[in-house]
Amino acid sequence: MVSSVAVVGATGRMGALAVRLVETADDLALHTALGSADPLDAIAGADLVLDFTVPAVSPEVVTAALDRGIPALVGTSGWNADRIRSLETRLALTPELGVVIVPNFALGSVLATRFAAMAAPYFDSIEIIEAHHAGKIDSPSGTATRTAELIGRARAEAGPVAAPHADQRARGQQVASVPIHSLRMSGVLAEQTVVFGGTGEVLRITHETLGDASYEAGILLGLRATPAVRGVVVGLENLLELGA
Description:
Layout lengths: L2 E6 L4 H12 L3 E7 L13 E4 L6 H10 L4 E3 L6 H11 L6 E4 L5 H13 L5 E8 L9 H13 L18 E3 L2 E7 L5 E9 L2 E9 L6 H10 L5 E4 L10
Parallel strand pairs: 1-2, 1-3, 3-4, 4-5, 5-11, 6-8
Antiparallel strand pairs: 6-9, 7-8, 9-10
């Protein structure tokens, strides 16, 4: 069975990559490719909507998809806890639909975040340094935010991380008590390091994106899995068989 995909944000870097992947996959077909000036009505009739827009527009795209009975795969940052709760409330009215929100489609990044959550209970001093290209408009990144949230969840019994001098702006923005330091500069694509400080030792978990090809497997996985999802799923790791 071939699934038709409407790509919204198709003129951007990630959107253009997604269009190429859909057009070359045997089990996917391009329903429409929309830019910022194109009306969302064109998504009608698609089997799936893929959103690669910007944080301010993404909720509108998802709402348009759900209003038309279409599941959505979201690759746009900016889906914080409040937005996700609102989306969960909306989906309660249409339990036959699902939305998958993916902060990062690189499989290595997903695994690095999982490893960071595994290590979190064993270190009290944890900080995140993330770097992206100068054109990325949001900070901290969705990947860093997701990593910090999972670290906080993993430390539910241990408590917040040690983050001294949090009142100083240079100490980064705290998410789930974890300081995040964001770099936006030329010559960088995407990189994240989670630094764990312990007694007499330092552990660093680093993932670096060297090219857009790193996202291809994750995008295809998301496109193929999303139609079967019900409710809200956050994180590509939930579509992988990573175990407990």
